[in-house]
Each structure stands twice: as C-alpha cells, then as structure tokens.
TrEMBL record:
This is DNA-3-methyladenine glycosylase I. Its EC number is 3.2.2.20. It comes from Lactococcus ileimucosae. It holds the Pfam family Adenine_glyco. The lineage of its organism: Bacteria, Bacillati, Bacillota, Bacilli, Lactobacillales. The keyword ATP-binding does not apply.
Amino acid sequence: MDKKRCKWCLSSDKMIHYHDTYWGVPVHDDQELFAKLILDMNQAGLSWSTVLNKIESFYEAYDQFDIAKVASYGKEKEEELRQTPGIIRNKLKIAAAINNAQSIRGIQEEFGSFNAYIWSFTKGQVLQHKVTDESQVPTSNDLSEAMSKDMKKRGMKFVGPTIIYAYLQAIGVINDHAEYCFRNKELQ
C-alpha cells in the first residue's frame, strides 16, 4: 500500500524525496539553518521545485553555506555568483545572502548560535498544526510575522513573513504535514 503524503509534493520523485526526508524535520545546525534560509529566500517568486532542482549548485556556489565564508564575500565573489550557472542569479538575492550571513554572525555572538535564536521564538518547541486539508495552511502567521520583524530589525533582507513561514515549515519549527500524511505522526 502506498504511503499517503501531502499533496504538494506529488509532482516529482525529487519533491517526494524532499518531503519524505527533509521537509519539516527539526534542524538545529547553524550552517543548515542558514542554508535553508537562503534557499527559501531564493524561492520568493518561484516554485520550490525550481530551487530544489538547483540545490547541489547552491551548496557548491555558496561554499556549503559556511556562514563565515559567505559573510566575508566581497564584490568580486558577488559578481562571480551572478555569473554562476545552476543557481538563481538575482542580484538582490545574492546581496541579501551575503548581508544575512553577516547579520547571523551578530546573532551568533548575541545568542551563542543561530539555532538558539531561531528556536527561542517557540522556546524550543515544534508547533503542531492540525492540518486536515492543505488549503488550511496559511502563508504566514503571528510567529512568522514576529520573527520577520525581528530579523529585519537586525538588518536581514528577503525575510518577509511569507518567506519566514515557509522557512519555519522547512526547518521543522512548524509541523504542517497534513494529518493524513505519514510524516505528520513521525514528526510529532
């Protein structure tokens, strides 16, 4: 018998693999939290499958999302990224990735880690949404609004409430797997 999954992932084997393996799994590693933020930021205006199909190129182009390395990128590296095939070469998104890495360095100093900062918004708890129908999933909520506002105050860019909501789903702060999906119970 086939496993029941969230409907959004059924368009390709790659999307199913992402859904079954990564989406909604709580992340606590600073580098991976940064990577997912940059990937979700790059999704703005595009489909997730577009980003997912470029994920290996993103990791390569951005030095495996090493926060210190990305924070130190200068104009030369920024221009190199704008010429790199296989990633989203939007000038503003590239500049925002570098800027956000620099902001995260400040957050790490203040909180001890980016992980401590992210999870402080829910006191380390996963929010379990009871989604019976995927149409119930919002594009933002009070948590994504608050985190977005705080990140912007810290100088971050491309961190609006909708991007942050998708980010919180991806990193497992919010469990938005539908109740009928086999991953919902696994991630509770």
